[in-house]
Amino acid sequence: MFALRYTLEKAVNVHGIVFGDNNVIIAAPVISLKGFNDISEIVNIAKEKGIHILEIRYDYLLMENKDLSPSNILLQLNNLGFPYIFTFRSPREGGVYEIPDHLRLKMILDIIVKYKPTILDVELYVFKDPEMRYYASSILKYSKDEGIGLIVSYHDFNNTPDYDTLYRIGEEEAAVGADILKIATMARDFSDIITMLRVTHDLRAKLRKPLITLTMGERGKVGRVLTPIFGSDLVFVDLMGKSASGQIPLSHMLDFVRIMGEL
């Protein structure tokens, strides 16, 4: 629990995952199944270590096994009742599996209908591109109909844009129908971290929505531990492999959360 965290007046509960209260959600990306018989073994580790939610990085898993069926993972997760974010990231924003957007989005729609993930992550540009309007509107509709939490996300793996640009991105994510806003940028220096902290605070103050913000890279580690204080609700940790640079080992993040809870 972060006693000093900038919270929402009314927390938002997404199938048991609570955004906006004094607790910070700890998420662990799953980027490989090597060394495991099935996903249940990863779930057991997550429970033991205090992970609140897994992020299934389907692009990484397809790179590892191109014949992988989502039913091998998602149906079992649903049966186990462990919450997960389903992310099939575009190469345009850090994904590792090359696939045309229309095929990727069709697969995402199929996932929503068949498996109903706890939370779904889709990039902001999908909702802004007129050529993807059908997929964007369908994803939005089915997510709302099925009660799936929708993260609309933006990633910049090269730089941190200026304050006005980042704030506008947050507004755009909210405008297209996001349940949860997400902004992730590469921190080149400490001024980038300060920019992200300002944006985090102001988006929480003005939009009053669930929010995930973070900075990537070695310098970005500082931002990863500070953004929750300013209003970011979720942190990604390195439990069994990093999906982005600067992710902090779980044990270190738990130490930080404990220290902040004692202040």
From TrEMBL:
Q: Name one GO biological process term.
A: chorismate biosynthetic process
Q: What class of enzyme is it?
A: lyase
* Residues at which 3-dehydroquinate binds: 55-57, 89, 224, 243, 247
Catalytic activity from the UniProt record = 3-dehydroquinate = 3-dehydroshikimate + H2O
Single GO term (MF): 3-dehydroquinate dehydratase activity
Spell out the InterPro entries in the cross-references. Aldolase_TIM (IPR013785), DHquinase_I (IPR001381), Type-I_3-dehydroquinase (IPR050146)
Tell me which UniProt keywords the record has, alphabetically. Amino-acid biosynthesis, Aromatic amino acid biosynthesis, Lyase, Schiff base
Extract the CDD domains matched here.
DHQase_I
The record's note on quaternary structure and interaction partners says: Homodimer.
Classification via NCBIfam families = aroD
What protein is this chain from?
A: 3-dehydroquinate dehydratase
Q: Give the classification, highest ranks.
A: Archaea, Thermoproteota, Thermoprotei, Thermoproteales, Thermoproteaceae
